[in-house]
């Protein structure tokens, strides 16, 4: 899994945006809902259960304010006539439809063909058929001709044309461990089969050691360096602008990987506790709104986060050729660094320098340091229904380049500014980012290893 935390841990890079506002749900009249459900051949509770089971969601999620809006959203009901027409038009049999209900897990919930209420769900159950048009679309997506795709399947002992449903092909290519899926995975990371064999051998592993495609892909992404390269590509413009080299970022990345690889339940509980402490500050826009005790709490949260991730930080204010170290407490009270530069050094717990970077006054005062308007507890990931027309596409994180900041390292004393600054926002933003990014990463990692 891509470590979103790695981006979040650089406390000066990004800020989480406010959570989208929630809209109020207008409840549908109960009697009208019962009448509509009766039209469909069920009752209100049965309809609600059906909508969830067939991935429409709850009535609140569908967000229909009336039965008419709900009717419009759901479409035509199934009748014996249009069910038969659906089978005839697609060359399906009733037996194939019943089998598909079993394959998709609906039969286990008590559904048969007569229990499917909506025409849309007839197509949803069967999925897209394997035909010339859909095969050509798949081949185009994979940058191949249909013949090349068929040959690849044949080389690995499979017959492309033996599949009835596109979902089964997607499963073969994107979710199962087999020669076909391995071909595309290795193509993605620019690795040969021989190189993979060597990588597995170096780690004392074989393909049989992986329980799922995701587990295998995660191993290859991490151990091959592909994951790091993708991370670097997404953030390099900003990092280089503030003086962080690729080598420094790799040091930092490897450190976090080591820390998180040994994460246990105690680590996770400390992380959630840190996140809970941050929720108190979700309504503040800048650190200047906080009183002294709240500033002290922010500093305490920062210290706890640094300890948790086995990091140490040193801060300096630089003006020309003079540089003065400032403490985290002093930094929380500074309001304007003017033309000075905030120079940050990040170390591991043993005192080894991982990276350093510089922030100009303009960058420190930039609104990337606004405190997120809301902080949400992570929720268990919910399995989403696979798309019908496309295989899953990996998304890249994009980061907007910032202004260039100059690194200065000459040392000499300089008096601290009397006023106290948005520089302090760096602390709060950094703590939020570390907790938010890490909690999401840790939650997903914990969930993956518990399955």
TrEMBL record:
Top-rank taxon, per record: Bacteria
Record's signal peptide: 1-26
Keyword vocabulary terms for this entry: Membrane, Signal, Transmembrane, Transmembrane helix
TM ranges: 423-443
InterPro entries, alphabetized: Acidic_LPXTA
UniProt-recorded name of the protein: Processed acidic surface protein
Annotated source species: Terribacillus halophilus
């Amino acid at each position: 899994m891509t470590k979103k935390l790695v981006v979040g841990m650089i406390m000066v890079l990004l800020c989480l945006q406010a959570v989208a506002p929630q809209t109020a749900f207008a409840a549908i009249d109960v009697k009208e809902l019962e009448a509509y459900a009766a039209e469909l051949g069920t009752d209100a509770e049965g309809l609600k259960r059906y909508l969830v089971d067939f991935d429409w969601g709850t009535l609140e999620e569908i967000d229909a304010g009336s039965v008419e809006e709900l009717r419009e959203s759901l479409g035509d009901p199934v009748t014996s006539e249009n069910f038969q027409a659906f089978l005839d038009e697609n060359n399906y049999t009733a037996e194939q439809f019943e089998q598909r209900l079993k394959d998709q897990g609906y039969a286990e919930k008590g559904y048969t063909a007569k229990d499917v209420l909506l025409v849309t769900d007839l197509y949803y159950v069967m999925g897209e058929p394997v035909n010339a048009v859909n095969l050509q679309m798949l081949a185009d997506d994979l940058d191949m001709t249909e013949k090349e795709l068929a040959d690849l399947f044949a080389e690995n002992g499979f017959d492309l044309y033996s599949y009835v449903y596109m979902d089964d092909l997607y499963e073969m290519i994107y979710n199962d461990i087999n020669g076909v899926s391995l071909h595309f995975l290795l193509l993605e990371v620019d690795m040969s089969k021989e190189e993979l064999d060597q990588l597995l051998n170096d780690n004392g592993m074989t393909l049989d050691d992986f329980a799922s495609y995701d587990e295998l892909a995660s191993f290859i992404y991490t151990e091959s360096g592909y994951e790091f390269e993708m991370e670097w590509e997404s953030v390099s413009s900003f990092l280089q602008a503030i003086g962080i080299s690729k080598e420094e970022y790799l040091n930092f990345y490897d450190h976090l990987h080591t820390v998180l690889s040994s994460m246990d339940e105690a680590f996770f509980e400390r992380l959630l506790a840190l996140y809970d402490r941050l929720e108190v500050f979700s309504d503040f826009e800048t650190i200047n709104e906080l009183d002294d005790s709240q500033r002290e709490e922010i500093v305490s949260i920062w210290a706890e986060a640094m300890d948790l991730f086995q990091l140490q930080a040193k801060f300096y204010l630089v003006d020309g050729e003079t540089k003065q170290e400032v403490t985290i407490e002093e930094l929380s009270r500074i309001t304007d660094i003017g033309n000075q530069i905030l120079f940050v050094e990040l170390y591991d717990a043993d005192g080894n320098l991982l990276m350093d970077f510089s922030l100009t006054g303009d960058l420190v005062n930039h609104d990337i340091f606004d405190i997120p308007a809301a902080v949400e507890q992570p929720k268990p990931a919910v399995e989403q229904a696979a798309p019908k027309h496309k295989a899953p596409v990996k998304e890249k994180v994009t980061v907007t380049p910032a202004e260039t900041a100059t690194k200065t390292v000459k040392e000499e004393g300089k008096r601290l500014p009397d006023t106290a600054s948005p520089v302090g926002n760096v602390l709060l933003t950094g703590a939020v980012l570390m907790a938010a990014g890490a909690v999401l990463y840790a939650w997903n990692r914990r969930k993956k290893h518990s399955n």
